[in-house]
Amino acid sequence: MLQQTLSHAPIYVWAILAFLLYRGLAASKDRVQSYRSAFIIPSVMLVLGWQSVAHGFGLETPVGAAWILGMLAGAGLAWMRSAPVTVDRVAGVVVQRGSWLPLALMMAVFCGKYAVAVALSIQPALRGDLRFALPVCLAFGLFGGVFLGRLLRTVAAWNAHRGAAIA
To answer: What CA–CA distance (Å, rounded) separates 86 from 157?
Structure first.
C-alpha cells in the first residue's frame, strides 16, 4: 500500500520535496542572504499550512481557530528562542546562523501534509472529525508559526538596525 501511495503522488510533490530539502540543507549552515530572500521559506511554509487547513477542513470551523492558535504559539516560541540576527542594511543582507531546525520543520510540514492528504483521500469522513482535525491543524499552525516567529525576529533586527543608522 505504501508503494502504491507513493507512486500515485503527482510529480510536483517530489519537486516541492526536493526544493525543501535543498533549502533546509542550506539553512543548516551559516549564510548571508538578501533581506527579501529571508521571506521565501516562511512564506512557502505558511501558504502550505494555510492551504492544508483551508482545503482539508475549512478555515471558518474550530480547526481554523486551532490553526491560528498554533501559529500564535509557534511564533511566540520562535520569537523567544531564535538566535540573534545580524543585518547589513547597506548591503541589503541578513546573516543567518546555521540551524537544523528549519529542515526538521520543513520535513514535518511536508510529511504531515502528505499524510493528511492520504488519510483524507482514504477516509473523507475525517474532514469532519474534530479528534483528527484539531490536532492536525494545531500542528500545522505551530510549525508555520515557528517560521513566522523567526521571520519576525529578522524583520525586527532589520528595523532596529535602520533606527540605529538614523540616530
So the answer is: 7
Rounded-to-integer distance, Cα 9 and Cα 15, Å = 11
What's the CA gap between 33 and 30, in Å, rounded? 10
Task: Answer whether 93's CB lies under 8 Å from 35's CB.
Answer: yes
Alpha-carbon torsion angle 12, 44, 118, 53, nearest 10: -140
Nine cell digits for residue 14 = 517530489
With 0.70 as the threshold, say if the pTM is over it: yes
100 burial level (CB within 10 Å; 0-12, 13-18, 19+): exposed
Are the C-beta atoms of 93 and 33 separated by less than 8 Å? yes
pLDDT in tens, 108-149: 989 988 898 889 989 999 998 999 999 999 999 999 999 999
Check residue 95 and report its DSSP letter: E
- Find out whether 42 and 150 touch, Cβ atoms under 8 Å: yes
Grid cell digits, residue 48:
502550505
Compute the Cα dihedral for 56, 136, 124, 126 and give only its sign: negative
Query: Any idea where the domains of the chain sit in the sequence?
Result: 2-166
Task: Answer for the pair 99, 83: CB distance below 8 angstroms, yes or no.
Answer: yes
pLDDT, tens digit, for every residue of 50-85? 888 888 888 888 999 999 999 999 999 999 988 788
Which element (helix H / strand E) includes 103?
Answer: helix 101-122
